Prior knowledge:
The chain is an alpha/beta fold. The chain has nine helices and eight strands. An eight-stranded parallel sheet has the order 1-8-7-6-5-4-3-2. Strand 2, helix 2 and strand 3 form a beta-alpha-beta unit. The model has no long low-confidence stretch (mean pLDDT 95).
Amino acid sequence: MQKIIVSPSILSADFANLERDIKSVEKAGADWIHVDVMDGHFVPNITIGVPVVKSIRKVTSVPLDVHLMIDNPEKYIEDFANAGADIITFHYEAVSDVDKIIKLIKSFGKKAGISIKPNTSVEVLYPYLNDLDLILVMTVEPGFGGQKFISYCAEKIIPLRKIAKKELIIQVDGGINSQTARICTQYGANSLVAGSYIYKSTDLREAISSLR
């Protein structure tokens, strides 16, 4: 059975106690830490940037899964790589030259991921499957936590898994809980991002375990 990588999103953590909340999910069995970077342009919300990633890197050895929901990601990839990101995911909709961004991320020795919004067809990613390490399928509109899972978006996983190389990580983010996680993993996802479901749980270990 394929291992499911659980990546708790710190968007739902207590930012006044970020180190505590990162260590708590790490202790509870998190595989990665998901960092949502929003710029107020590509998405309406504003979250965190390079200095926070750099600070997080000092307090955890868990891989940092950095999701850039920003315009012009090529301007910031080097900074995030140097700050300690292990996986850098950018949005298909935010760039004009996908190949260029993938190569840029890999030039810093990092895993390259790409994400698509709910209304973006999965077929646009097919030309890049052999070069990517991760594809992030958004099952909510990016920009805010706590949204309801959009089921038809998860169906994009099915054709991806059929044609992608075996080692490609297919990640899902948006409205993930124990029920929606089961749908996504049955379709072929092997990485799940969850924020409020994990951080609002009274038992972090049980919440993380239930996603697998």
